[in-house]
Amino acid sequence: MKKGKLIAILDNRFFARVKKEATKKKGKLRAILFLMALLLLGYLYMAGDYGFVRIFSLWKEKKSLVMEIKKIEAKSIDLKVEKQKLTSDHDYIERIARERYGMVKKGEKLYKFVQKEPKDLSR
Description:
Number of domains: 2
Helix content: over 70%
Distance between the termini: 113 Å
Number of strands: 0
Radius of gyration: 43 Å
Shape: rod-shaped
């Protein structure tokens, strides 16, 4: 073979190897960039003001506040009913006076039962 053809063949092989290695490096670089982009999107999805974790915690907080509002509304209705009874129902007023304040009518006797405290047997 001639020297010129041999150099041309070697040059072609050399450039083919260089091109092949460059293609491998480009593939690795693309894979790394894709992975980094995927990690960035995952981070943005999970964290931050509009991330999944933040939205989920706000959803749980909203749920607990709605439950608290319902409890307060129910208590408000109960208090309105009791207010109405206290202003108009004389039997209810009498029962409250007897139960809470120990009041009695004339001629009635009030009995109070005192419970003895149990003895401590552990000593």
